[in-house]
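Format notes (please read before filing issues)

Several people have asked whether sequences and structure tokens are stored in separate files. They are not. Every record keeps both together, in the order shown below: the sequence lines, then the token lines. Line labels are part of the format and must not be stripped during preprocessing.
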Amino acid sequence: MSARKQQLLKAHRRNKRLFLVAFLLGLLLIGFLLGWWLVPLLLVAAWVAHEAWFADHLFYRATDDYQYDFPAGTAHQAVSLAGGVVRLSEPLAPGETLVLEVQLNSTWLGRWLDPYVAVGDDRQDFERGVKGRRFLNLSGQAEALAQGSLALRGRYCAVAPAGTLWVMANPDYSRQRVMVLAPHADDAELAAFGLYSRSEDVSIVTLTQGEIEAEDFQRLGLDQAAAARLKGRLRSWDSLTIPLWGGVPAERCVQLGYYCLQLPAMAQAPDKPFGSRESQETDVRSVRRHNPLALPADADGQPTWRNLVADLTALLEHYRPEVMVTPHPELDPHSDHVATTQALREAIELSHWKPATLLMYANHLHDNDRWPMGPAGAGIALPPAIEALPADRLWSPQLSAQVQLDKAMALAMEHDLQGPPVFKRQLRRWIQQALAGRRWPVTGSNEFFRKAVRRHELFWVRDLSD
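Then the structure lines:
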């Protein structure tokens, strides 16, 4: 976390403590003046208000501008947004990924209900109290945009009468040889089910077993280590079998069997083995028996960084991907995700085969655990970027309603995304549904069913051949 974000987090906690002190003093005063019977009622009301409107984890201000730069030479033009229609100032440049830079200003109601912008038949949601520069994803709306018929309307927010349209052109990467790197089982589905399910030549490589946080499996009468081993086996099986739902056969899927949250430590000491934190296992071969090819770490089973990089190097040379799908190292803060892309970079340096393109995804964010905001099925606006990111091109392919449903069913097969939410989270959802107008999909209760099943997928593009 950056120094600026640490300062915001400290300020958030400080303000919360000051508010609690002031609130408790106010309660004491009310109880003394008006009667102590009011105190428990006010406490309950305050808790309900917190759950409805103040429970989101946003470690930035809703008034902060998003900071995005795009590569030099990216086509862009000024557009008019007056009258509820997007009007171009010049003919639309060729390109399938369309991003509209706008200024939003929340209305008073937008501090209590999620503000969003309706764009044609899409909606894209933003932070309550939003005020500043934001980026709408218009990919898939090019025809209406070119015809001057694309309607745009703010709901619980006002949209400034002018904006900037950015147009980015990419090949259809699904027609090239693609390899998807997933730090954990489910990362490939969350980020790229739509892409890999229509790719003609694709392989999927999962780096870890996903064995930690297996408390739910202890209800089967297992101790912590046995529960973690069972969870690791199940999630490893998920990583090999669920892609078949998207048309990827098992011989194109590989499970490397390293251990959750150990990849950063492995990177720091490349020759030292790092076993599981919970399962007591130290041999990655326990979940490799169904892999379609032999790999360097099969020789000794040691969970070392050197073995991981050697495995990835061998996979690059075997599958010869032109496009690598991998976590965004600057945007996705999960330590295993950052280490995954670091290991890939090292493997590319060693490999005789060099992919041409990185497609990078973000399944987690530093700043906002609700992004993409809004309901399932909506579009994906660009995520918060409070500190400038590298100036990457974007690619945002569309998912049909049928592919979205298939993606949701793929997530429903993931053992880590099954089961009802804990009671506290479910109670919060009921309160937010009643008071804040939020909705969750019927396909699954895990938050990823809302966040990941969208009309777009979103990738940051880096060309490695430059």
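For reference, the curators noted about this record: Residues 3-34 form the longest helix (32 residues). Residues 49 and 256 are 46 Å apart (CA to CA).
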